[in-house]
From TrEMBL:
Transmembrane segments: none
Residues covered by the Aminotransferase class V domain: 18-381
Keywords in alphabetical order: Lyase, Pyridoxal phosphate, Transferase
Superkingdom: Archaea
Membership in a protein family: Belongs to the class-V pyridoxal-phosphate-dependent aminotransferase family. Csd subfamily.
InterPro entries in alphabetical order: Aminotrans_V_dom, Cys_dSase_SufS, Cysteine_dSase, PyrdxlP-dep_Trfase, PyrdxlP-dep_Trfase_major, PyrdxlP-dep_Trfase_small
Transferase in keyword set: yes
Organism in which the protein naturally occurs: Methanomethylovorans hollandica (strain DSM 15978 / NBRC 107637 / DMS1)
One Gene Ontology term of the molecular function aspect: pyridoxal phosphate binding
Pfam families xref list: Aminotran_5
Catalytic activity: (sulfur carrier)-H + L-cysteine = (sulfur carrier)-SH + L-alanine
Any one Gene Ontology BP term: cysteine metabolic process
Protein name: cysteine desulfurase
Cofactor: pyridoxal 5'-phosphate
Phylogenetic lineage: Archaea, Methanobacteriati, Methanobacteriota, Stenosarchaea group, Methanomicrobia
């Protein structure tokens, strides 16, 4: 059974705030914070570099976290790499692939800047980039990807769920289409990991990226890059911890995942992330998806009943609801929500300017849901937006 009161006890901040900014970052549950505290107070040391017991314990805990995450996403441990965030994961792929002038990349218009700018920059190296359009609800038709494919398409990079509209892309079909032509496929799962079931082996994408600090409930400064074939990219960073031998004339790079984790990683963060993913797993990902979807659909339909409010995105949405109050700046709406009821939402472009502009907007108010939100919080949001709307009626 989905025990919402018990879940909420693990997120003390929710006693005071109505936190609906989960697409930006989520709260971290007490057991994950405790796991980090335990690291600092009981066994803190560096990863992978010591014979002493603290170093061994740190390494074991860090690697346990990797196993937890790989198993949760159903992917190989060797292809599960810890990064700082989704942005770093994507840049590691953009830098790690060997590009040649004339190569072709397909992205969509409804990407977060993190999954757009690293690809647009490749134009400086003679790579051609096609940006496929989405419909006005933010859904990318797989057929559009198919149409954009060329003989020289090397990579298709699209989101799983848009952070602006909450629309869900058919990543299974998109992956199949990309592979049909021999292209690799990168899926930005920043808004889906921890919010809905994700099975990398079954979906078959070549690269899956996610931050640790959103649906996976980990701390900021954590991210994951999952690679189907770890040898398909070169490491972006070189340094300690990722080489087996070094001389002035040559060096031997370790196998993945060490190959991609040069330098001291965010050890406490990864340990906290591992514990947070256990929390998500034990809560039940299907139940989480169901819960968040019910809240988001209810929020979208109630907000749409307010005459001055326009809601964006599809009916069949993940836990993200973007809207505007006609005649009001989204930032003003967000400030009033906070000041009157301590409701925390995001406003503006959501780091996705082309996506927002593609539907003729200059920003939205965005409420986004996580496993701990309640229907009462949805009602508080709707009531307050309704009051705000009377200011411009
Ligand atoms: C769809 C999407 N991709 C990428 C990112 C970037 O995540 P991070 O800030 O962890 O790099 C975000 C963050 O909001 C996002 O929503």
């Amino acid at each position: 059974m989905y025990d919402l009161p018990a879940i909420r006890k693990d997120f003390p901040l929710l006693e005071e705030f109505i936190y609906l900014d989960n697409a930006a970052t989520t709260q971290t549950p007490v057991p994950a914070v405790k796991a980090m505290e335990e690291y600092f107070y009981k066994y803190a040391a560096n990863h992978g570099r010591g014979a002493h017991r603290l170093a061994r314990m740190t390494t074991d805990k860090y690697e346990d976290a990797r196993e937890t995450i790989a198993s949760f996403l159903n992917t190989d441990v060797t292809g599960t790499v810890f990064t700082r965030n989704a942005t770093e994961s994507i840049n590691m792929v953009a830098y790690g692939l060997q590009w040649h002038p004339g190569d072709h990349v397909i992205v969509s218009i409804v990407e977060h800047h993190s999954n757009l700018l690293p690809w647009l920059r490749l134009r400086d190296h003679g790579v051609e980039v096609t940006v496929v359009q989405a419909n006005e609800e933010g859904v990318v038709a797989p057929e559009q990807i198919d149409l954009a494919l060329k003989d020289n398409t090397r990579l298709v990079a699209v989101n799983h769920v848009t952070n602006v509209f909450g629309s869900i892309q058919d990543v299974r079909k998109i992956t199949r289409i990309g592979h049909k032509n021999g292209a690799q496929v990168l899926i930005d799962a920043s808004q889906s990991a921890g919010h809905m079931p994700l099975n990398i082996k079954e979906l078959g994408m070549d690269f899956l990226v996610t931050p640790g600090h959103k649906g996976l409930l980990g701390p900021q400064g954590t991210g994951v890059l999952c690679l189907r074939d770890p040898d398909s990219i070169e490491p972006m960073y070189l340094g300690g911890g990722m080489v087996s031998s070094v001389s002035i004339d040559s060096y031997q790079i370790e196998a993945s995942p060490a190959r991609f984790e040069a330098g001291t990683p965010n050890i406490p963060g990864v340990i906290g992330l591992g514990r947070a993913v256990e929390y998500v797993r034990d809560t039940g990902i299907e139940d989480i998806e169901k819960h968040e979807t019910i809240l988001a659909k209810k929020a979208a339909s109630l907000l749409a009943e307010i005459p001055q409010v326009q809601v964006y995105g599809p009916q069949n949405r993940a836990g993200v609801v973007s809207f505007n109050v006609r005649g009001m700046n989204p930032h003003d709406v967000a400030i009033i929500l906070d000041q009157t009821r301590k409701i925390c939402v995001r406003s503006g472009y959501h780091c996705a300017m082309p996506a927002i502009q593609s539907v003729g907007l200059k920003g939205t108010v965005r409420a986004s849901f996580a496993l701990y939100n309640t229907m009462e919080e949805v009602e508080a949001l709707v009531e307050t937006v309704s009051d705000i709307a009377t200011l411009v009626a």
